[in-house]
Design goal:
- The chain is α/β, with parallel strands linked by helices and 287 residues long.
- It folds into two domains: 2-127 and 211-284, Alpha/Beta hydrolase fold, catalytic domain (Rossmann fold, 3-Layer(aba) Sandwich); 137-206, no CATH class.
- It has ten helices and ten strands.
- The chain has helices spanning 41-44, 74-88, 100-111, 135-147, 159-168, 174-184, 215-223, 243-250, 267-270, 272-284, and strands at 2-8, 11-18, 26-30, 51-55, 93-98, 116-122, 185-188, 196-199, 229-235, 256-262.
- Strands 1-2-4-3-5-6-9-10 form an eight-stranded mixed sheet, sandwiched between helices.
- β1 and β2 form a beta hairpin.
- It is globular, with a radius of gyration of 18 Å.
């Protein structure tokens, strides 16, 4: 896969792109929270029948950070991804999303059904939700965080230290983490600290979101998706996306198929060949 970048109203958005055979389906891949386009490097070698563009979503990887007055929300990110597709000249395409990328892709499929041919999601189906009663507390936390001074980025003396920190955060093996770290850090100089490396992602991505959807809203969005959907869940489920919830969301889809595989949250990186086997025909439109 090779680097690409497009200029949009959301700033310059970058990613990794690989051509496919003539007439191949165009697949736009969206990574998870604080990950980047390298999330799809292990998978792409097992998906030869597609044209693949893996995007660094705004604030991630090599893509621009949103202006201070703009917020990182799932709908706003969906608009940015459509802007990237426009810049690529892709009117109609297939979406592949992991985790946060799956939430964004779900909103895109519901919002502009004429543009999305098929939707595949890994370890995701809709955005994180919250009870209405928590809305006031969430607003207070979000406004307080935005008013607080920006903390300096953590600086690592070399990439190996950053890799160790990413693995220690959990949920991913070292080989997969290495790919994300290599794309996710950049050299820094200046200040009182010696030269080193820091994360390229926007620190504002870790702030509380001002508003979250309710579960009813997410299920309504999923019910509006018209295209075929392939869902890949890992077993055991993540604590923030329990089995009861993920099955209830799946039941909202009109035209869907479900695969559950033993593995962790980044199973598309750690078991790439196996996951690709469950996605290949669907992404190509042959199954």
């Amino acid at each position: 896969m090779r680097e690409f970048a497009v200029d949009t109203a959301f700033g310059r958005l970058a990613g990794l792109r690989r051509p496919g055979p003539p007439g191949a389906p165009r697949v736009l891949a969206l990574h998870g929270w604080l990950d980047n386009a390298a999330s799809f490097l292990p998978l792409q070698e097992h998906l030869p029948g597609i044209e693949l563009a893996a995007l660094d979503m705004p604030g991630h990887g090599a893509s621009a950070h949103l202006p201070p007055a703009a917020e990182y929300t799932v709908p706003n990110t969906a608009r940015a991804v459509f802007a990237a597709a426009d810049a690529l000249g892709w009117e109609r395409f297939v979406l592949l999303g992991h985790s946060l990328g799956g939430a964004v892709a779900s909103v895109m499929a519901a919002a502009m059904p004429a543009r999305i041919q098929r939707l595949a999601v890994i370890e995701s189906l809709g955005a994180l939700t919250e009870e209405e009663a928590e809305s006031g507390r969430r607003l207070q936390e979000a406004f307080a965080a935005s008013a607080a001074p920006q903390r300096p980025l953590r600086r690592f003396r070399d990439p190996a230290v950053a890799l160790k920190a990413r693995v220690a955060a959990g949920g991913i093996d070292e080989a997969a983490a290495r790919l994300l770290v290599e794309r996710g850090i950049a050299p820094v100089r200046g200040g009182e600290e010696p030269p080193g490396f820091s994360w390229r992602s926007d620190p504002r991505l870790t702030r509380p979101t001002a508003v979250r959807m309710t579960e009813g809203q997410v299920r309504g969005i999923l019910a509006a998706i018209e295209c075929p959907v392939r869902v890949v869940y890992a077993n055991p489920p993540q604590s923030y996306f329990p089995e009861e919830q993920r099955q209830a969301r799946y039941a909202c889809l009109r035209d869907a198929s479900l695969v559950t595989l033993e593995g962790g949250h980044h199973l598309h990186m750690e078991q790439a060949e196996r996951v690709a086997g469950e996605l290949r025909g669907f992404l190509e439109g042959t199954a």
